[in-house]
Structure formats: structure tokens, C-alpha cells
Model the fold of this input.
Amino acid sequence: MERLQKVIAHAGIASRRKAEQLILDGQVKVNGEIVRELGTKVSPTDRVEVDNVKIEQEDKVYFLLYKPRNTISAVTDDRGRDTVTDLFPNVHERIFPVGRLDFDTTGVLLLTNDGEFSNVLTHPKYNVEKTYVATLQGVLKREEMRKLERGVMLEDGKTAPARVRIISSDDRKGKTIVAITIHEGKNRQVRRMFEAVGHRVSKLKREQFGFLTTMGLNAGEWRELTPHEVKQLRALAQTGKIG
Ligand code: URA
Done:
């Protein structure tokens, strides 16, 4: 169930505020009856009319984007930078990113117009695992790895246990490539975790979100999730298991 003004806004008829005014002015009917209460909730099967014209409720859509660098995980940007939704010029549904990746982070980012789905996947009480591959300045030492695995203190609290695996380590160049798996989603969490043990992250990619990867896509490309993947993601968020 969604609030009536949201359904009207999502159908592209008017802004949320304008939709409220249409309701207050008696221009909106639900199943043939004029409704003037702003809190009214409707389901996708309810017939909603604005000025006696039935509105089409938008279908829910789900995309997996291989986010490129230098794009912002938002629908609009007041500084005029490219946003991830700019990569979907022919998609007319009002999609938004599920959570965020930093401007210069690449990798798996989901986009949808399904607010409830997005809440389930980003809510801290649910735990979808995310694996990042980070290029670090300096060589990551064993004790530093252990600290990350146990959890490190950040300004907004201690991080939950993480899995850390060194992919390659180059003493001469002073750099380490490492995979880290976490299930929280604190702001800039991975960068801050490595900074907390003394390493700056120079490159960061989200390799995996739950069971989803960027396989088959180049940076900037996207595909639709299958209905089965959408179902599996919901199950994963709620139980930590697929299926
Ligand atoms: N952690 C970060 O530091 N940045 C991201 O973009 C995602 C996770």
C-alpha cells in the first residue's frame, strides 16, 4: 500500500505537493469515490482517477548497474555532476539508487522505483553481504588484517566482523589489493576502515552485492534483474540465505 499523493506523483501527474492539493481540492477519486484525506493508502489494484482520468500506476522495475567512476549515486545533483540515473536515458520510471557508492567507487549498484524493496535491502537489521576490492597504499600487515576482521572503531561506532583476503601485495611498489566482505552500509565505510588501520584506499570496486556481480557488463552498462533475482534478494535480505 502506498500513500495516494505518492502514487499520483509516481505516475508523473504532479509533484508530491501538487498531488496533495489535488486531493484537498476534491479532484481525486479512489474506486469511484472522491477522497480528501491526505493519509489515504491505495494498493496497485485500486482505481485512482485524477479529474476523472484513470492513472496508470507505474510498474516496478529493477536494474543492476556497473557504476563507473565519477558519477554520483543520486537522482539529481545540485553541482551538475553526472548522476547514475543519467545512464538510463530511455527508462521512464522514476528510478533511484538502492544505497550509495562514492563518486569514485565503481561496481554493483542496484536501481529501482520500488521503495519498499530498497528499504529492505538497505535496512541495517537485514544483512546482505557486500564484497569490495580495494587497492591500498602500503602493505597490509597481518595484525592490521586481524583488526579489520574483528571490527575497528570509527567515529560512528565499531564495525561488525568482516572477512578480509589479500589478493596481491607488492612491497616494492608499496601497494596491496585486498577483498573485504561486510554487511553494514555506513557512509564511506570501507575507506574509513582501511584508514583506521593506516592505509589510504586509492581504488575501490564493489565486486559483489549478495550474489550479484558485474559479470558480463562494462563500467556504465546495466541490465534488468530477473524476477527470480528480485525474489532471491528479498529472501537473502531477510534470512541471510538465498531461497
Ligand atoms: N565503502 C566506501 O568507503 N565507499 C563506497 O562507495 C562503498 C563502501
Residues 227-239 form the longest helix (13 residues). Residues 184 and 231 are 21 Å apart (CA to CA).
